[in-house]
Recover the amino acids of this structure.
């Protein structure tokens, strides 16, 4: 019964209540974002007569750890600090972590977040403590637009279908993320036209590789329909 | 100890954690939400949000990121802990600690001195919404001064200046909105300059629009900026040049009228002033709305082609928009407030209301009358019911004109918006500023306001009561440390919308020597000999009980007693909305039997009252597009207003003008106006930037992330930019509310847009026009600047 997140990109405003609720729940320092909101923006402006024609589009992706079926962070961890529970939740054992950052380099979602002061890796716990008490993860309970949910992976896949390619998420086959997602209607345009993450400085914490570099953007796009 | 052995000795068993449901601290944030505070050892360690069942008729009040990041404000290292008095020159920000006795004695003595020297109308409590529940905020000081013989009165607001005054000229009331669940009956929602995802406008307003859209409504956003609301809610974004919304509305009306799409029957039975046959008695010769649209008198038909060069919206789009709104019924035209904080803000309000009337969307489920739209059936939340009492001083100034009342108060007359007297008899000599940053940071033209306040011969004494040394507090002679709303009792109802009462029990003790706004005022009252009158024997909790009684007598008959409310730990009492009320249903059904409170009893497309003011160029009797006094067009634009011109002359943008870019300042989720400006989690989420279109950036050699200088004749900002396609070319956006941080040369390093705004007010409402300004942006080539964060 692995757990999974569901995210409705079509109605996410990018308000970041999820990100901040997560920081409050887990008391995260500045620069550490277990959940982040990526703003994808693109489209051109064309003069038309005396007017401007906008082809502009944008959407948001609220991404935490996807507690993948093939967690590459667990595979590369040299100390077994990064481990997966039977319920699918991927955790890092702070006592075992030496702060080598291999997991952060390997994860294509930027989920492991290095805590500079503590000298070790941290990451989304799926609010396992909340789950144990029958409560939802903090981010899910926070969303003012009700765009986040969680559940059993199989159930969410039945309801929302398999994860569709959405720029700039990496190919799902890579780690098989436990993530169900309703794409924003503009996601198809991001696949076809030039798009970029518009808020790099807001999602790139101090010391981890961003979700995908501008070079690999092209690769990702090729994988999109 | 080896490298891997980081285990500490087992800690002592943790203290128990109490979970208390509490209203999110009330600011002027647009929402009123519920939090669950986790309290351990006298400290709040975590905040969750509403966990009640989430139902359409009484939805959860989920807090936005500002509520969720509240502990960064609550436990900020810069919290004021002690009373302070000024040591340097006023505005230098140098203070020394004093005792409460000295502080309160000083304030009481200054109040007495100024009252005796100049009279009560020289005392002033400014507009302040920095703390905004029943027991916390500027209204506590207003009660104090009212009992002390009164103070200079204020009317109207910074937020809703023009819309407050213009809405009743059409409808005779501000209560023009339905309960929001009714949006689920709409087929079309025009979010016109309206951005509930960021400025909230009632907790859940964005969520209700989402539900309406799921129910089949088409949603269109009209905004210069591709806002967070646009991303989440809109089927289409129509970028518009700021300050030209009335032109778009006028052209839409032209299309509806010339194509016969308007609701002619409704206009005939429920409106006045539409055409020559419908003019009020005595105004038969005046220009009707139809005449204006068709250009009968000015020779300029207000066609979509006329509006295109003004609005930057293609002609075909304007025509399509008009047809959509006129035919996809019922529909909502929701007016945001930013576009009425501009030169002729009254016009855009009136024009929107008239469009709602032309389409017959007034008084029907799924429709919307536009205007301010306080909710039916009872006007909605009160914000506060705390009794400020009667002000014995009857004279009032428009709230935005307080600097005028300092500089030339005794010369101000009704021509300056003075109410309650022929003229003002005083200049402002003492300011007691509670929970407000309006004196410097949030008022227009920061450098001007600062200059006025620095002159100690004008305002002779300035006391500021707040949680931090804000830019306003820097100018204080006396600083009084207020506690936060978690540290005292409070009570909230909704912000504009909502059917809830939310309890704010005291959760933790205030730090240092902080006291509640109410307590401070009570202790000043004691020194002025009016202590018993002020408190009536109640403490903060006692007043919460008193306020609960008022809510119980009015909108919430089932409200429990305080004891029970506290013991249940539910935090919120809601009236479920199962049958959402619709404004103007009675008037719709029978306009003769249920007339409006307008002079004609009908919807006044033409206002005789405005006509009789005799200022048709700035206060026309029918809503018109009037070019702003700071605009991006060349002077040729003005020729479109020429009476002899038969063909509209397309305006040309100022290419060579000194300040060619329009600037706007949206409400960011990083702050509530200027509250939370020092909250590091919110700065991390939404760093302060000037947003600029790639075309404008490229023309200036500016790259994303560059530090830039944004300036006009009033001042300059130095801050990083974000190059983004999500804003109309020719427009830059600087989220309002950042704290002013003047450098030695006077440039602001904090990114406060009010350094650039103008204090000139709107003609009818005497209201803020702070959204209108022209600027230039250049890459900053000066030395590296350090700005404060956190």
């Amino acid at each position: 019964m692995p757990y999974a997140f569901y995210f409705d990109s079509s109605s996410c405003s990018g308000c970041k209540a999820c990100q901040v609720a997560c920081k409050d729940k887990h008391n995260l320092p500045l620069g550490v974002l277990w959940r982040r909101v990526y703003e994808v923006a693109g489209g051109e402006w064309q003069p038309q007569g005396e007017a401007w024609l906008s082809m502009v589009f944008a959407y948001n992706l609220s991404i935490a750890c996807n507690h993948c079926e093939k967690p590459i962070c667990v595979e590369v961890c040299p100390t077994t600090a990064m481990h997966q529970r039977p319920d699918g939740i991927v955790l890092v054992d702070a006592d075992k972590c030496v702060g080598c950052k291999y997991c952060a380099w390997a994860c294509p979602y930027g989920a492991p977040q290095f805590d500079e002061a503590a000298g070790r890796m941290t990451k989304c716990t799926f609010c396992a403590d909340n789950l144990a008490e029958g409560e939802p993860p903090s981010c899910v309970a926070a969303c003012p637009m009700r765009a986040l949910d969680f559940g059993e992976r199989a159930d969410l896949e039945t309801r929302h279908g398999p994860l569709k390619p959405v720029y700039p998420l990496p190919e799902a086959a890579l780690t098989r993320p436990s993530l169900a997602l309703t794409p924003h209607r503009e996601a198809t345009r991001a696949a076809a036209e030039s798009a970029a993450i518009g808020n790099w400085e807001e999602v790139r914490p101090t010391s981890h590789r961003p979700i995908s570099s501008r070079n690999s953007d092209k690769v990702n796009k090729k994988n999109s329909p | 100890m080896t490298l891997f052995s980081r285990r500490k000795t087992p800690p002592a068993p943790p203290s128990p954690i109490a979970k208390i449901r509490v209203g999110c601290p009330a600011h002027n944030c647009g929402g009123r939400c519920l939090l669950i505070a986790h309290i351990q050892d006298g400290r709040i360690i975590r905040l969750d949000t509403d966990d009640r069942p989430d139902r359409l008729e009484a939805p959860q009040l989920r807090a936005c990121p500002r509520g969720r990041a509240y502990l960064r404000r609550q436990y900020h290292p810069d919290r004021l802990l002690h009373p302070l008095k000024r040591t340097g020159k006023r505005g230098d920000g140098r203070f020394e600690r004093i005792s409460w006795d000295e502080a309160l004695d000083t304030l009481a003595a200054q109040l007495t001195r100024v009252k005796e020297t100049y009279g009560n109308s020289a005392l002033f409590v400014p507009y302040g919404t920095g703390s905004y529940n029943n027991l916390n905020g500027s209204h506590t000081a207003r009660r104090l001064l009212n009992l002390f013989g009164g103070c200079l009165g204020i009317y109207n607001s910074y937020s809703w200046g023009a819309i407050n005054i213009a809405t009743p000229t059409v409808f005779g009331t501000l209560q023009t909105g339905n309960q929001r669940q009714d949006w689920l009956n709409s087929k079309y929602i025009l979010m016109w300059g309206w951005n509930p995802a960021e400025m909230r406008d009632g907790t859940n307003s964005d969520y209700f629009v989402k539900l309406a859209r799921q129910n089949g409504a088409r949603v269109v956003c009209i905004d210069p900026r591709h806002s967070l609301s646009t991303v989440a809610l809109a089927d289409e974004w129509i970028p518009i040049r700021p300050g030209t919304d009335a032109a778009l509305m006028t052209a839409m009306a032209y299309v509806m009228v010339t194509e016969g799409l308007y609701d002619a029957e409704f206009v005939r039975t429920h409106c006045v002033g539409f055409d020559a046959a419908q003019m009020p008695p005595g105004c038969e010769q005046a220009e009707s709305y139809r005449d204006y649209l068709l250009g009968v008198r000015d020779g300029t038909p207000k066609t979509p082609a006329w509006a295109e060069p003004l609005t930057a919206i293609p002609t075909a789009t304007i025509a399509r928009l008009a047809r959509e709104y006129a035919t996809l019924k019922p529909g909502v035209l929701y007016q945001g407030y930013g576009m009425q904080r501009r030169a002729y803000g009254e016009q855009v309000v009136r024009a929107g209301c008239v469009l709602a009337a032309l389409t017959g969307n007034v008084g029907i489920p799924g429709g919307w009358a536009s205007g301010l739209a306080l909710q039916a059936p009872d006007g909605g939340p009160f914000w506060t019911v705390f009794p400020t009492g009667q002000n014995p001083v009857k004279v009032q100034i428009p709230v935005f004109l307080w600097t005028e009342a300092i500089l030339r108060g005794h010369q101000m007359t009704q021509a300056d918006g003075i109410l309650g007297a022929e003229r003002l008899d005083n200049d402002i000599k003492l300011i007691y500023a509670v929970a407000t940053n309006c004196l410097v940071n949030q008022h227009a033209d920061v450098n001007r306001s600062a200059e006025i306040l620095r002159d100690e011969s004008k305002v002779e004494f300035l006391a500021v009561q707040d949680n931090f040394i804000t830019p306003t507090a820097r100018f204080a002679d006396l600083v009084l440390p207020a506690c936060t709303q978690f540290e005292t009792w409070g009570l909230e109802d909704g912000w504009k919308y909502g059917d809830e009462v939310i309890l704010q029990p005291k959760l933790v003790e205030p730090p240092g020597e902080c006291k509640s706004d109410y307590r401070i005022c009570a202790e000043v009252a004691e020194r002025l000999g009016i202590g018993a009158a002020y408190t009536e024997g109640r403490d903060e909790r006692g007043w919460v009980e008193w306020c609960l009684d008022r809510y119980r007598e009015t909108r919430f008959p089932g409200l429990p007693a305080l004891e029970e409310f506290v013991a249940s730990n539910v935090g919120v009492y809601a009236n479920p909305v199962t049958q959402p009320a619709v404004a103007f249903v009675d008037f719709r059904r029978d306009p003769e039997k249920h007339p409006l409170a307008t002079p004609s009893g009908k919807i006044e497309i033409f206002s005789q009252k405005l006509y009789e003011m005799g200022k048709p160029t700035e206060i026309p009797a029918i809503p018109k597009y009037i070019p702003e006094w700071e605009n991006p067009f060349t002077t040729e634009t003005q020729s479109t207003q020429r009476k002899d011109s038969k063909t509209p002359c397309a305006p040309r943008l100022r290419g060579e003008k000194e300040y060619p870019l329009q600037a706007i300042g949206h409400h960011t989720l990083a702050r509530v106006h200027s509250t939370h400006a020092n909250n590091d989690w919110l700065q991390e989420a939404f760093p302060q930037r000037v947003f600029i279109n790639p075309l404008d950036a490229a023309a200036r050699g500016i790259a994303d992330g560059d530090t830039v200088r944004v300036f006009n004749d009033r001042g300059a900002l130095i801050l990083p930019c974000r190059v983004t396609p999500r804003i109309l070319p020719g427009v830059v956006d600087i989220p309002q509310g950042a704290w002013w941080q003047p450098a030695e040369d006077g440039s602001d390093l904090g990114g406060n847009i009010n350094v650039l705004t103008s204090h000139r007010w709107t003609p009818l409402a005497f209201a803020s026009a702070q959204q209108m300004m022209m600027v230039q942006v250049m890459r900053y080539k000066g030395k590296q600047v350090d700005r404060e964060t956190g």
